[in-house]
Amino acid sequence: MPRSIATNTSVDLDALLEFVRPRHHAILITRRGDGAPQASPVTCGVDDAGRVVVSTYPERAKTRNARRDPAVDVVVLSDEWNGAWVQIEGEAEVLDAPDSVEPLVEYYRNISGEHPDWDEYRAAMLDQGKSIIRVTPRRWGPVATGGFPARLA
Fold it and tell me: Which of 11, 65, 84, 98 has CB 3.0 to 4.6 Å from 30, enough for a Cys bridge?
């Protein structure tokens, strides 16, 4: 059986965002007050401005951490375990309700399409006090796949 060879493909920002758009599983890495990493599994999307976006609540550790220290990392994963992935370093911005409502509408649209009742959705976001974290990519690694080193092909 042929061995799968690991790959690393350097991409520009446009190609990075094209890679991320259909993938919604990620790990958001923020920094605790003492500088230690804090990792959170999240659902992510890409907004119209090319930022990686995550819906959350203001009480969550990731939200508090990103507000205090906006330097974050997002590891975007493929749905399949052995699929491609990429790590993005970026600067986070946290928006809370009511300012988060329209960005949350955009987040929903870009991931799931149209909602059957946008007024109901907006009311739910306000009622729940939802926040959104928007990450502007500053640096990213190559799009990578796992596998064997080429020397073992």
Answer: 65
Q: Which residues of 60-90 are buried (b: 16+ CB within 10 A; e: fewer)?
A: bebbbbbbeebebbbbbbbeeeeebbbbbeb
Report which residue type is found at 87.
Q
Per-residue pLDDT of the chain (153 residues; tens, 9 = 90+): 778 899 999 999 999 999 999 999 999 999 999 999 999 999 999 999 999 999 999 999 999 999 999 999 999 999 998 899 999 999 999 999 999 999 999 999 999 999 999 999 999 999 999 999 999 999 999 999 998 998 887
CB 3 within 8 A of CB 152: yes
Distance CA 72, CA 37 (A): 9
- The DSSP secondary structure of 41-96, one letter per residue, reads EEEEEE-TTS-EEEEE-TTSHHHHHHHH--EEEEEEE-SSTTS-EEEEEEEEEEEE
Q: Which amino acid is at 113?
A: G
Q: Which tokens in the block code for residue 17?
A: 């965002």
